[in-house]
Design goal:
By secondary structure, the protein is an alpha/beta fold. The protein contains ten helices and ten strands. The protein is globular, with a radius of gyration of 18 Å. Bound molecules: adenosine-2'-5'-diphosphate (A2P). The site of adenosine-2'-5'-diphosphate has 18 residues, from helix 9.
Length: about 280
């Protein structure tokens, strides 16, 4: 990976810029719109939003108003938990596209595998949802389809009825929370791992080893963490609403971590909290 324009290739041949700009907790309106505009100006070409973040309209405005050709920006959104099911997925997708104000979406993800309202029948709900995803994909309305927060048992259940294997699994991945079994299960099917909360939602900054590495490489803790994510073969989605940090988090291509230092960071345990258990989330 040489720059923010470098790409991973999904198993359907679609290319995806190797760092995405995360918008979780970027408030709808001025804050989210400005953050996405600053990110695009800083060279990011991949923006990650979700219906549940409530900021699709702002993200869409920033993308459309950027002056950058639509084909050069990779936009991801996600299906909200209450909308699982075949018909409701189709309707929810239309609403997402209306809010974004875009004709096509680059990547659409099932946000969570086991939402509270479907806890008794999540397998059936995901199968019906995925059927709608496959149809939207085959109709050319989405370039790639995938999942988020799926653990191996959720993926195995989905693959019993899926005709199309998901291209992406977006999960929480940061030093100390490497979700090894989910990573292995996804890779077995050539599913790209996207890393949300790659800075441990900010907890990474207090980790002594990361501070030591930052000093050693003359980079910041954020840059070392994101570089680790890239060298792990993940696609990091750092979130910030601070312009200087948005730029800082893109400067990852002028250094490389040695294998020894990669191993030390990968060996960190429980330093940044853990991913929520998708079978227990209350929403
Ligand atoms: P802010 O948005 O106020 O800039 P994650 O991507 O793991 O979810 O982490 C996001 C959190 O880390 C946010 O609180 C964000 O703050 C903060 N953050 C993002 N980039 C940096 C950075 N380069 N330096 C310090 N804090 C950062």
């Amino acid at each position: 990976m040489q720059s923010l324009n470098s790409t991973y290739t999904l198993h359907n041949g679609v290319t995806i810029p190797c760092v995405g700009f995360g918008t979780w907790q970027a408030q709808d309106g001025e804050q989210a719109e400005t953050a996405v505009r600053v990110a695009l100006e800083a060279g990011y070409r991949h923006i990650d939003t979700a219906a549940a973040y409530g900021n699709e309209e702002s993200v869409g405005r920033a993308v459309r108003g950027s002056g950058i050709d639509r084909s050069e920006i990779f936009v991801t959104s996600k299906l909200r938990n209450p909308d699982h099911g075949y018909e409701s997925t189709l309707a929810a997708f239309d609403l997402t596209m209306q809010r974004l104000g875009l004709d096509t979406l680059d990547l659409y993800l099932i946000h969570w595998p086991n939402p509270a309202p479907f806890r008794d029948n999540w397998q059936e709900a995901n199968a019906a949802t995925w059927k709608a995803f496959e149809e939207l994909y085959e109709a050319g309305r989405i370039s790639a389809i995938g999942i988020s927060n799926f653990r191996p048992h959720h993926l195995d259940a989905l693959l019993k009825t899926a005709r199309i294997i998901p291209m992406v699994n977006q999960i929480r991945l940061c030093p100390g929370d490497t979700q090894d079994e989910t990573v292995a299960a996804s890779r077995k099917h050539n599913i790209l791992l996207e890393a949300y909360s790659p800075l441990g939602t900010g907890k990474i900054f207090g980790v002594p080893l990361m501070q030591e590495m930052a000093a050693k490489y003359g980079k910041t803790v954020a840059q070392v963490s994101l570089r680790w994510s890239l060298q792990m073969g993940f696609l990091p989605l750092p979130k910030s609403t601070t312009p200087s940090r948005i730029k800082e988090n893109a400067e990852l291509f002028d250094f490389a971590l040695s294998q020894e230092d990669m191993d030390r960071i990968t060996g960190l345990k429980d330093c940044c909290g853990k991913a929520s258990d998708p079978d227990k989330i209350p929403f």
